[in-house]
Amino acid sequence: MADSIEHLGALLLVAAVVAMLTRKLRVPYSVGLVATGMVLATFSLDLHVDLTRDLIFSTLLPPLIFEAALVLRWDELRRDLVLIVALAVVGLVLAAAVAALGMHWLAGWSWVAALLFGVLIAATDPVSVIALFREAGSTGRLRILVEGESLFNDGTAAVLFAVGAAVAAGQAMTPGLLAWWLLKSVGGGLACGALVAGAILLLANRTDDHLVKLTFTTIAAYGSFLLAEHFNGSGVLATLCAGMMIGNLGRVCAHAPREREAIAEFWGFAAFVANSLIFLLIGVHEEQQDFHLVWKAAVLAIALVMLGRAAAIYPVCGLFARGATRVSLRHQHLLVWGGLRGALALALALSLPPGMPDREAVTTVAFAVVAFSIFAQGLSIGPLLRRLDRVPERSG
Q1: pLDDT of residue 362
Q2: pLDDT tens digits, one per residue of 140-192
Q3: How far is CA 170 from CA 44, 104, 109, 112, in A?
Q4: Which of 23, 141, 172, 280 has the highest local Cβ count within 10 Å?
Q5: Are 254 and 78 in contact (CB under 8 A)?
């Protein structure tokens, strides 16, 4: 126990120093953390912390999702909700199809490996996307679009990944079973989030102690996630729902400005800690990957992921070209290049069935795509945002 606390303290010290340096150098914080993790790995430093699916999903993801959802205003989100859902569902399916077909026909992967890779790499990562767009100073409607899509598309990815994993295990898939899984993942996740948030709001109204209210929000973040995962629902959607309910309805519980400030600062710190650990560990594990064995497949996958992202954004946004939810072409470009991959893709890759054909290649290529996403896209999204995000957000 003492060793774990010691290593956690060391990681947080490294993260704090990196945060100071990246701010002075004007480098994205997440990029600096990944690079630092790679440097630590080259010195063979044992951090005694493994990057696993359980660590990402059950420990680090809930506070990040909850903090992002807490500041999402419903009156802003509902104006683009149909567009966001279309991007998160139709767009993700299109992106996954491009990656899967390309890796099967061009890289020679089995259908199962190609399909699972397509699904896990198609979902934009809420951790990377939200962190980088906030650092880049994104505001207004563009922020709502990128954060909303990255938070919502996990539900689609979870269902498709579960289908692919079931097929890989030899289970027959029918339309009825697919519909049931969709209902269980999306509907079950939202129901668990609403149930937990409702209970927390009732309890919070009965106390004036802001520390107790902070405790309640922590229970809401982790409780909604774990409850949904227990019943095979989407934990991300559950925490998203709980965070939005508390953030929008919970203002009646945080009467004093002090309480609202305390909650915002607490979850800002929690998100900082979770982000720091995730990106440091990604860097450590990136350094441990043997990319030279799959470099051709990795280059192909990066090209297919970018092509799939374009296939997801431009056609879907084109469907809304004449409505009030029209997205300017410049913002579409930003959505394409800003669709980063990160911890979510790696968590799914690490949970692939052990005996699956091409499993090692899929995992290593997923790490390569994430590395490209964080470094190439992460370093350029700020300048691109400043150059392109200078037009009215709505026209007509």
Answers
A1: 92
A2: 788 888 888 888 887 778 778 877 777 777 677 677 777 887 788 888 999 99
A3: 40, 19, 18, 11
A4: 280
A5: no
Contact 362, 352 (CB under 8 A): yes
pLDDT in tens, 289-341: 777 778 899 999 999 999 999 999 999 999 988 877 888 888 899 889 988 88
Q: Which domains occur in the chain, in start order?
A: 2-388 (1.20.1530.20)
The most confident of the ranges 37-41, 45-49, 96-100, 349-353 is 96-100
